[in-house]
C-alpha cells in the first residue's frame, strides 16, 4: 500500500474514499458476507468503535506505521488498550464484514467531521525529518513553512497547513529534537540515577528534625485567637443575668444570696438574678437571657417568647411576647397577656416543662425593705 496513493484518497473530504478499498474490494466482501452468517460475534465491538475512531486509526497507522505510537498519540472516543487497537486494525484489514460496515459508516460522516479528523493526523517520521532541518537559532515565519509545503507535497499530509507545521516545529524545538540541537547530559558528581540512589541520599535525621514554619505560624495565630475568646468570655461573666447550671442529680441548693428565683427543667436550671429577664430561643443575631433550646427541641419557640418580672411588692409575673401560648399550671397564657407566677408553678412552652421556684428568704427581705420605704 503506497502512502502517497492513500493520502490522495483522503485528500477530498466531499468525495471520501475508504483507505482500505485497495486491500478489500466491496464486491468480494459482499460475497463473503453471504457465506458467513455470524453477525453477533463479528459486530460485538461495533458499539465502542465509532466511525470517527476508525478514520483516526487508519490515518494514524498510515502516517506512523506503528500501532504503539497510535496508542500513545491518538485520542479516541474511548480509552482503548493497545491490544484492542491491534485487534481493530487486524479486523479492518482481514475481516470483510467489519471492514465493509466500517467503510459504509465512514462514508456517512459529514465533510466537516472528516476534515477535523484529518487535521489531527499524527506527524510521520519523514515530515518531522524535514521540519528538524530548520535550525533552532532561526525565527522562521509562516512563509518558510508554506514554502516547505509547496516543495514537498508528497511528504506532508494533505490537510497540513503552514500554521500546523510551525506549531509542531516549536514542539520539536522545545524537546531538543531538531538536527542542530542535542540533549544536555545530566551533571556529573552527585547525580541521582534511580529511586534507590535517591533513597540512600536522604538523611532521615533531617526529616525528623524538620520544622514547618508555616504550620507553626498558623498554630500560633489559632492559639492567640482562642485566648482572646477566653478573655472575652471572662469579661462577660459579670454581665450575665441568668446562669445555666446542668443538673447532676445531686441535691445541691437552688438558691444563693443573689438568686431571686430559678426555672428548673429536666436538663438545665436557669437562675434569675435580676428583676427582669427574657426567655426564648437564642440565634446568631439575637441574644436573650434564658435560652430554652438548652433544655430540648425549641424550634417552635419564638426568639423572644416571654418576659419574667419581679415587682416591688415581691410578686413575679410572666408576659407572653411570642406566638405560642405559655401554660402556667395548665392554664394557657396567650400572646400579649400576663400571669402571676407562684412558687412551684409548672410552666410549659412548646412541650418543654419547667418548675418556677422562688427564693422565699430573699423575697421576704425585699418585701420588708419595700414596706420600710413606703412607711418612710
UniProtKB/TrEMBL annotation:
Gene Ontology annotations of biological process type: chromatin organization; DNA recombination; DNA repair; positive regulation of transcription by RNA polymerase II; regulation of telomere maintenance
CDD domains in alphabetical order: FHA_MCRS1
Origin superkingdom: Eukaryota
PROSITE patterns reported for this sequence: FHA_DOMAIN
Sorted UniProt keywords: Acetylation, Centromere, Chromatin regulator, Chromosome, Coiled coil, Cytoplasm, Cytoskeleton, DNA damage, DNA recombination, DNA repair, Kinetochore, Lysosome, Nucleus, Phosphoprotein, Transcription, Transcription regulation, Ubl conjugation
SUPFAM superfamilies on file: SMAD/FHA domain
Protein location: Chromosome, Centromere, Kinetochore; Cytoplasm, Cytoskeleton, Microtubule organizing center, Centrosome, Centriolar satellite; Cytoplasm, Cytoskeleton, Spindle pole; Lysosome
Domain FHA: 277-333
One GO CC term, this protein: spindle pole
Major localisation: nucleus
Keyword Acetylation tagged: yes
GO molecular function list: G-quadruplex RNA binding
Presence of the UniProt keyword Cytoplasm in the record: yes
Protein name: Microspherule protein 1
Organism (species): Cyprinus carpio (Common carp)
